[in-house]
Amino acid sequence: MAPHPPAPKSRRERPAKPALGHEVIVAAAVRIMRSEGLQRVTMRRLATELDTGPASLYVYLANTAELHAAVLEEFLGAVDLRPVTAPGDWRDRLASVLISYVGVLFDHPGLARSALVARPRGAHYLALLEGILALLDEGGVPAAQAAWGVDVLLQVATATAAEQSTRGEDAAAADDHSALARTLREAPAATHPRIAAIGEDLMSGTAEQRLRWTFRAVVNGALTTPRDPA
Amino acid sequence: MAPHPPAPKSRRERPAKPALGHEVIVAAAVRIMRSEGLQRVTMRRLATELDTGPASLYVYLANTAELHAAVLEEFLGAVDLRPVTAPGDWRDRLASVLISYVGVLFDHPGLARSALVARPRGAHYLALLEGILALLDEGGVPAAQAAWGVDVLLQVATATAAEQSTRGEDAAAADDHSALARTLREAPAATHPRIAAIGEDLMSGTAEQRLRWTFRAVVNGALTTPRDPA
DNA sequence: ACCTGAACACCGTTCAAGT
DNA sequence: ACCTGAACACCGTTCAAGT
């Protein structure tokens, strides 16, 4: 245990401060995301975590949206893509993949909201896209329709997760939801005949029931709707 | 022009400070929205506009999301609902209403983003809902399917406006978009055969072309997809 | 080239105190 | 009841200056 000389010139502090870089920055962001939620994944909080000033992060990230997209890309690794190659009905397998995607977003409130604005484009996202396209192809959806349809499927899934997770996040959003339900229930038939006729059904079902129907409907629509109208 | 006595006790300043209230607050918010954009519709900026402190606004608004929802509700008055009662193909008229809705959101960047989270529930929103439901009914979409379908249509329209208007808003988001296009173009066929096979088509078309196809596809899907799977 | 201290210009929300 | 000053606890981003 001979004491080494004071380490060649390195002025080390407590835990060896890691060199900055895209990878360590995103890793730190994911850490904060897991422990404190997306609302704490800010440039300033991240800089503190990395023991530097916020300005340093701008060498690697253009803005906060890009940071959030990078975090999302990381989390997309948790989407279960096994149904893509599993046996069984292709529609059911497609729904399973999309429900898994929604689940990942739903587990991390805030992430869905950012996904609508800054789309990721990393390996995990590409794999998800590829998987959905493979299933649509297996189901015989023409390529041109699948190309646009995959976007609709992801958009609906993401938007639903955004709404849903906001509602789970804060009480005000949940109140808002029931206030809308009440408003719809109370809409007078004289001025809003269709809303009155449909009534409760406008807000019925669980999120998953609605999503599963929506996925089936969008897939059926994509399957039967040509790109160029006659 | 006999000079009146100094106004009965009222300690008036420059322009008679308007009494606070939900209506004047929303009106001021709309004014700021028009002149400075949604990113300036903040509690603090609004308080300044109304010549008071931000705390005063919390008597009338629970939070910023509610404020943004109120502003959106105001702007929804600009959606063109005339196609609902016009002659012609119901699908085309439905698409026109939805395109008008997207247009309103698109003209006011940021509004669409907030619409995904805090849904409005005022008269303008109800009228939009009623109009879409009337058209779906005219087209013979079963009520149960229309009830859930209207949500999908509005969600897709809103999400598209959110993406699109973010892209128009700042250059970074636009770069992001072309970066995604490049990533997709360069995806190797060995690992991503479907992406490679479809290629350019994944990002092809104008926003309006894609939206019109999407609306048709969703409507067709809603028309033919029963709520309870066999 | 890479990194950063410090500053600029803001935020939402709460709460004790006033009228 | 309604309103508010002041405070608490933060933000994103830029830029001149350092290494």
TrEMBL record, chains A, B:
Residues 19-79 form the HTH tetR-type domain. Coiled coil: none annotated. Residues 42-61 bind DNA. The lineage of its organism: Bacteria, Bacillati, Actinomycetota, Actinomycetes, Kitasatosporales. This is TetR family transcriptional regulator. One of its GO terms (biological process) is negative regulation of DNA-templated transcription. The keyword Kinase does not apply. Keywords: DNA-binding, Transcription, Transcription regulation. InterPro entries: Homeodomain-like_sf, HTH-type_TetR-like_transc_reg, HTH_TetR, Repressor_TetR_C, Tet_transcr_reg_TetR-rel_C_sf. SUPFAM superfamilies: Homeodomain-like, Tetracyclin repressor-like, C-terminal domain. It comes from the Bacteria. GO terms for molecular function: DNA-binding transcription factor activity; transcription cis-regulatory region binding.
